[in-house]
Amino acid sequence: MSILLTGGTGYIGSHVAVAVAQLGHEIVLYDNLSNSDEAVVTQIAQIIGRPLTFIRGDIRDTQLLQLTLRAHGVAVVVHLAGLKAVGESLVSPLDYYGNNVQGTISLMQAMKAEGVRKIVFSSSATVYGQPKYLPLDEAHSLSATSPYGRSKIHIEELLRDVAVSDPSWSIACLRYFNPAGAHDTFLMGDNPKGTPNNLMPFIAQVAMGKRARLEVFGDDFETEDGTGLRDYIHIMDLAEGHAAALEFLGSSQGWHAINLGTGQPYSVLQMIRSFESVSGAAVPFEISARRPGDVAACYANANKAKSVLGWAAKRNLREICESTWRFQQTLAQRLK
Ligand code: NAD
Ligand code: UD1
User: Fold this and answer.
1) The CATH number of the domain where 253 resides is what?
2) Would you call 176 a catalytic residue per the annotation?
3) What is the DSSP code (8-state) at residue 136?
4) Of 30, 148, 232, 266, which is the active-site residue?
5) pTM of the complete model
6) Residue 178 is inside which H or E element, if any?
7) Res 335: pLDDT
8) Is there a domain that residue 192 lies in?
């Protein structure tokens, strides 16, 4: 089967590409490289042991998408392309609605025109807003505190409307919790351009000595040690969750929202300690003010993924920290 991955050279897309290619599928990566590097295409090819197609393009370019779907006989799309920085979305909301919402409309138009009716969409636990109860299941109400979060809710809703309008569509919205870690070859991992927004790449860069210290955003939350609790999921578990979703779409119709998380929360201080113990490197930190919009705790009820997809996360926090650390070292070696 031929599978198009929008945002395929990004952090999550590159790992999904490997997991899916290793099942024997043909992979077409489609990305405008606004937040990734074409070099990852070579790394994916090296890991899977065969070449793959990369198209440099924007998801708002409906015509190029149509040509790509047609030329490669694409059967399913995994739609990861989009902007993802919460703070930036508050400053540039039009970019977020343009790339994320308008981009998805353009993609759906191209798919409709080419008769492609199966799509996996990268949603986020951010759609749950301030949790009303924990762990979060898929029936929890949706709300958002940023244009980024709202763009994800808008996209989920527009996808549901499309599925209602035409029952031949099969749509899975995967609500990721906190993806972290790297591929076991350590050739690929989270290597954001500029200052990392997320905790794990920031910790890793401090441990590598690239940054002086980590700011811990608040130690006065209602959690055991006062710092935020999150559900960190190994990137390869997440990637395998996509492979399971592709199989599920083969035998299902309609719109489905499914959490991809572990159900096991860790605090910021636990993450720092775990990383220090695995790497042997110090992670100096200081407590600073809460980051606007941050919730005290956010973790998944992952039962639906288990029952519907037959998937559950297998890797632990140690493996997340270890792969992150080894990836950082490989990266430093490569840049020497
Ligand atoms: P990423 O920035 O590494 O990957 C996104 C890719 O999309 C990048 O390669 C970027 O160049 C590309 N892109 C952006 N706008 C595009 C456009 N208009 N046309 C074509 N390509 C475009 O981010 P990621 O962490 O791999 O995230 C992938 C998806 O998962 C995003 O939709 C993100 O919102 C979602 N998500 C990520 C996380 C996370 O913690 N990383 C959590 C929840 C949801
Ligand atoms: C953030 C986004 C969320 C997005 C997700 C994945 C916000 C408010 N939320 O989630 O919408 O879907 O990333 O991209 O930005 N932390 C620090 N210091 C740091 C960085 C983070 O203490 O330098 C803390 C945070 O306060 C939080 C935890 O680490 O408690 C995890 O943060 P992060 O990795 O940014 O993920 P989320 O906040 O869960």
Assistant:
1) 3.40.50.720
2) no
3) B
4) 148
5) 0.98
6) strand 178-180
7) 79
8) no
Q: Which pLDDT score, from 0 to 100, does residue 196 have?
A: 93
Q: Residues enclosing ligand 1, CB less than 6 A?
A: 6-7, 9-13, 31-36, 58-60, 80-84, 99, 103, 122, 124, 176, 178-179, 198
Smallest CA separation from ligand 2 atom 5, residue? 178
**Overall number of domains in the chain:** 1
Nearest to 155 by CA among 257, 249, 280, 226: 257
- Decide: 287 and 218 in contact? Cβ < 8 Å: yes
- Give yes or no for a contact between 3 and 77, defined as CB atoms under 8 angstroms apart: yes
Atom of ligand 2 nearest to the CA of 87: 15
- Residue 234 gets which letter from DSSP? E
Burial tier of 131 (Cβ tally within 10 Å: 0-12, 13-18, 19+): middle
Domain region containing 138: 2-181+233-262
34-93 pLDDT per residue, tens: 999 999 999 999 999 999 999 999 999 999 999 999 999 999 999 999 999 998 999 999
SS3 assignment for 276-317 = HHHHCCCCCEEEECCCCCCCCEECECCHHHHHHHCCCCCCCH
Q: Which ligand is nearest to the CA of 194?
A: 1
How far is ligand 1, taken at its centre, from the CA of residue 86, in Å? 12
Instruction: Read off the tokens for 8.
Output: 């395929």
pLDDT of 336 reads: 78
Query: Does residue 198 sit within a domain?
Result: no
Euclidean distance between the first and final Cα of the chain, in Å?
A: 39
Judge contact between 163 and 255, C-beta under 8 A: yes
The residue whose CA has the least distance to atom 34 of ligand 1 is 84
In a domain, 323, yes or no: no
Domain for residue 201, yes or no?
Answer: no
Average of per-residue pLDDT across 109-128: 98
Cβ contacts of residue 72 below 8 Å, gap of 6+?
Answer: 2, 4, 26, 28, 53
Closest ligand to residue 65's CA: 1
- Residues contacting 244, CB < 8 A, separation 6+: 305, 309, 310, 311
